[in-house]
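Example S7 (structure tokens).
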């Protein structure tokens, strides 16, 4: 496998060439650090989110979902502390005015080579905009810099409508926006990104137990998506923690460009509920149904970055053999679960049978997920093409299929093994291989 920047360059090239990620607004020269997810990228991204939602919401009775607004009352961000404290230190090159995060300790400007910088000053990371046709201070609002606050301000609504009891959680998947000073490393640090986040409410005296529980849940998730080998857990010192956190552990991943933050886990105490209760004047206390005790729950927050998960999965899955490049993606995450093709595209009987099998798979009453049809070039080239995009199984209809025993070959992407499977058993075979491995 290639190392470091060479690997990163190969992954970026594959993403563009095969339709995972495109430069944003490319026909107009692009927009700095803007990326669009193509036909295969959106499938992989959606698979990540769906797998997460299924694991942490659908399979549990103590977590419910929400989809909160991107633009919220600005008092939300005042109460949460973001307006006052959500800052990064910034320095500016005095010659060309390029700006950098001060904590990167830049010695020379990467744009002009000058070593003359301004003193560090704080830069608020929130995107400002305005509601209505006139821009003024009175209608200033912000694109949300995190998904968490939508869950905190709906805490009372969730309690009233679901009757959940402590401990319970609220989950959300959605975009967030941060006006990063120096974004970069492909899709690793971008100004718009997606989060998968849970706010889990507990009794204050039980926070340590639940903190460890959610740390273990994050570790199990890493195993499920195949990236645990490259992950490292780092406890964040007090001076570097977010303003709301009493304890934080980051999951860092060994990317080709260095070990960087992938996920976060924070103990937010009752910081958010207490501040929103004070600012709004609304009672956000929880009432224990058994004891009638009233209190503000404390919160454990595990958070997962969608875009960084996407990148970590690609970095972990990238493989090179002597004769091919392939993505060893977990089958349940692969954009296509299988590809179907005739051995020879100029033999009508093979094409007809292959089309019949393809149609039966895509119209199944229990869909497997996207299935590819491919009759371009020879079989070897089709295998190579499907390997490169991570398709775990390639189904070939040959003369034995139509003239002998109605079996097809099912080639395994990773091992290249090609067992023959009865066409009528194909759906169950694939389902077992993809989802019950």
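Recovered sequence:
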């Amino acid at each position: 496998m290639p190392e470091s920047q060479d690997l990163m360059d190969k992954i970026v090239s594959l993403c563009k060439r095969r339709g995972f990620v495109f430069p944003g607004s490319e026909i107009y020269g692009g927009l700095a650090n803007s990326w669009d997810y193509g036909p295969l990228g959106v499938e992989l991204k959606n698979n990540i989110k769906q797998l997460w939602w299924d694991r942490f919401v659908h399979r549990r009775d103590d977590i419910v979902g929400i989809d909160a607004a991107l633009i919220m009352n600005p008092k939300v961000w005042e109460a949460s502390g973001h307006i006052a404290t959500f800052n990064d230190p910034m320095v500016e090159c005095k010659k060309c005015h390029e700006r950098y995060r001060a904590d990167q300790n830049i010695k020379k400007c990467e744009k002009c080579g000058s070593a003359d910088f301004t003193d560090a000053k704080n830069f608020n990371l929130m995107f400002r905009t305005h509601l209505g046709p006139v821009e003024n201070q009175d209608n200033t609002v912000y694109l949300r810099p995190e998904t968490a606050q939508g869950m905190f301000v709906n805490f009372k609504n969730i309690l009233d409508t679901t009757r959940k009891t402590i401990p319970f959680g609220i989950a959300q998947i959605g975009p967030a926006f941060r006006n990063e000073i120096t974004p970069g490393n492909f899709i690793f640090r971008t100004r718009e990104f997606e989060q998968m986040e849970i706010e889990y409410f507990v009794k204050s005296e039980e926070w340590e137990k639940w903190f460890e529980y959610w740390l273990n849940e994050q570790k199990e998730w890493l195993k499920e998506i195949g990236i645990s080998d490259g992950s490292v857990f780092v406890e964040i010192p007090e001076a570097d923690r977010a303003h709301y956190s009493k304890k934080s552990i980051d999951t860092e991943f060994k990317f080709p460009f260095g070990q960087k933050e992938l996920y976060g886990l924070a103990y937010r105490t009752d910081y958010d509920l207490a501040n929103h209760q004070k600012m709004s004047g609304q009672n956000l206390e929880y009432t224990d149904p058994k004891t009638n005790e009233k209190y503000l729950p404390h919160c454990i927050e595990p958070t997962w970055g969608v875009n960084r998960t996407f990148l970590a999965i690609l970095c972990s899955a990238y493989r090179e053999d002597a004769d091919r490049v392939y993505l060893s993606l977990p089958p349940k995450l692969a954009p296509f679960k299988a590809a179907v093709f005739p051995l020879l595209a100029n033999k009508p009987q093979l094409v007809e049978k292959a089309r019949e099998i393809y149609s039966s798979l895509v119209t199944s009453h229990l869909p497997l997920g996207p299935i590819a049809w491919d009759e371009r070039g020879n079989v070897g080239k089709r295998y190579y093409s499907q390997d490169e995009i991570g398709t775990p199984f390639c189904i070939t209809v040959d003369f034995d299929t139509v003239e002998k025993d109605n079996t097809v070959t099912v080639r395994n992407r990773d091992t290249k093994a090609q067992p023959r499977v009865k066409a009528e058993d194909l759906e169950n075979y694939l389902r077992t291989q993809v989802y019950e491995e």
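Notes on this example. Residues 81 and 237 are 20 Å apart (CA to CA).
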